[in-house]
Amino acid sequence: MMNKGGFCFLVCMLMISSVFMPVSATALSEKTSHLLTKGNTLYVGGSGPNNYTKIQDAIDNANEGDTIFVYHRTYYEHTITISKKLNLIGEDRNTTIIDGQGLFSAGIHIEDGATIHGFTIQRFTIYDVTTGPGTGIFIDGNNITISDNIITMCNQGIFFKENCYQIEICNNVFFQNTYYSIYLQSRACSIHDNYFVSNQNFAIDVMMGTRLVSIDQNQFEDNDVGIWARSTRATISRNNFINNAKHIDLRWDVRFLTLPFVFFRTPSFSENYWDDWNGARPQIIHGYFVYWIILPPWDPSVEILVFSSPIVQFDWHPAQEPYDISLEM
User: Fold this and answer.
1) Over the range 187-202, which residues count as b (16 or more CB within 10 Å of their CB) and which as e?
2) How far apart are CA 157 and CA 141, in angstroms?
3) Closest Cα to residue 82, out of 166, 7, 158, 139?
């Protein structure tokens, strides 16, 4: 039978071990623990078994359904390729950093079924013939979730390859990106609860017939343009538009033989907060109808502008007050 002194010693040792026990995949915060799967967990930047120095090495040695947990520090890696269904989770998005140093064209290249959570991805600025301007995350697949990241100082924050679908972009901060924070030409995508602040050119470029796309409950603040909506059927609702040089750049692009379908490729606006709304009538959104022909017909890279004309759309029920979108930098 344990005496009183031995019992007290055991309790003290248990308390000390709980304080100094290293972070593991079973001791994550509620914010990240729900992302874990039933697969194995591999670690990057720590010590002990299943630990790697480079993120790509851990990915290469993982199996479908595994989780890669990355300890906080700065990783100078580029073109990290995820070609299998994995969870890539950073310990803390403010201090788990993938840094392109202004020397590389792409940070993370994702194919089907991946989750990216908890990173700062920054300084990818070099042009590449495949990915275009320097890109933080290049999406080349379906069923992908990108959440709780900071994407900053890239030429493009996130680029969607054409015709990807089932993509969720949520709870991210996009800050000081140069061309686009998100370049979207896909379908069945949800962009919600993000914070777009101080981005040059366009915070979001959503274009060319994208269907079943919702842009909902985001904050657009101090950007050159909040959303460039080009021939898209996206639903844009319950967002805050505050102090942007231009909230919406609206354009209906029509090419030869597509004229009957122009009204099926227009966005809808609903219940957004506009800091320049006068409160007396629906918010007017100005744009242009632009008609092109392709010459010669077999070469879509050669286009001639025939004419353009002003157009307007409306947010019929603007929000009276800004929404509480409480993401922190």
Assistant:
1) bbbbbbbbbbbebbbb
2) 17
3) 139
Token representation of residue 201: 């050119």
The answer to whether residue 329 sits within a structural domain is no
The pLDDT of residue 56 is 98
* Residues contacting residue 261 through CB under 8 Å, at least 6 positions apart: none
pLDDT in tens, 44-77: 999 888 799 999 999 999 999 999 999 999 999 9
In a domain, 18, yes or no: no
pLDDT-based confidence at residue 295 (cuts at 50, 70, 90)? low
Query: Within a domain: residue 71?
Result: yes
d(CA 160, CA 327): 24
**pTM over cut 0.90:** no
CATH number at residue 237: 2.160.20.10
The structure tokens listed for 242 are: 């505050």
pLDDT, tens digit, for every residue of 1-53?
A: 444 444 343 333 333 333 333 333 334 445 555 555 568 999 999 988 879 99
What is the 3 state secondary structure string of 33-45? Answer: HCCCCCCCEEEEC
Range of the domain at 123: 34-315
Domain count, the chain: 1
Distance from C-alpha of 222 to C-alpha of 242, rounded to nearest angstrom: 7
* 173 to 18, 109, 207, 213: CA distances (angstroms): 33, 19, 22, 19
Q: Is residue 19 part of a domain?
A: no
What are 25's two structure tokens?
A: 């995949």
